[in-house]
Amino acid sequence: MNRALEPRQIDRLIQAATLVRDQAYAPHSHFYVGAALLMEDGEIVVGCNVENASYSMCLCAERVAAAAAISKGYRLWKGIAVASVGGVSPCGACRQFLSEFGLELPVVITDVIDGSYKIRSLKQLLPEAFDGSLLPTHA
Ligand SMILES: O=c1ccn([C@H]2C[C@H](O)[C@@H](CO)O2)c(=O)[nH]1
Ligand SMILES: [Zn+2]
């Protein structure tokens, strides 16, 4: 199966992630992040980071987008773009969270300053991932 994103899909994802970044609630870090997930049917589901005065409760944009997609009934994703100043990679927690739904996922890591990006698979970002297959309750 060809999992590579087409240039047009990459553009759409970057545009959506950059746009939703404006909605980020980040009064504590002032670090604004947007994420956009591409569904198998072409739909895009977005998320931004949502912070809290109790810092450990902060939600990353990637997990907000992933939870929104699941809530809409989407579990098959073609790619995700993450937009921030400097183009940060998803944190470890988000890598693990996203991996639940497939390690082949292409991650488009975008710097909103100049629009540059790089693409890495989740498998590259999370080698030797814990996938729950050894859990006694695994189906
Ligand atoms: O990939 C990342 C990295 C950080 N953040 C958020 C979490 C927190 O609100 C702020 C600073 O870490 O940026 C994300 O949303 N995604
Ligand atoms: Zn994260």
TrEMBL record:
The active site is at 62 (proton donor). Residues 8-133 form the CMP/dCMP-type deaminase domain. Pfam families: dCMP_cyt_deam_1 (PF00383). Gene3D superfamilies: Cytidine Deaminase, domain 2. It catalyses: 2'-deoxycytidine + H2O + H(+) = 2'-deoxyuridine + NH4(+); cytidine + H2O + H(+) = uridine + NH4(+). Zn(2+) binds at residues 60, 91, 94. GO terms for biological process: nucleobase-containing small molecule metabolic process; pyrimidine-containing compound metabolic process. GO terms for cellular component: cytosol. Signal peptide: none annotated. CDD domains: cytidine_deaminase. Its cofactor is Zn(2+). Substrate binds at residues 49-55. Keywords: Hydrolase, Metal-binding, Zinc. SUPFAM superfamilies: Cytidine deaminase-like (SSF53927). Its EC number is 3.5.4.5. It comes from the Bacteria. GO terms for molecular function: cytidine deaminase activity; zinc ion binding. Belongs to the cytidine and deoxycytidylate deaminase family. PANTHER family: CYTIDINE DEAMINASE. This enzyme scavenges exogenous and endogenous cytidine and 2'-deoxycytidine for UMP synthesis. This is Cytidine deaminase.
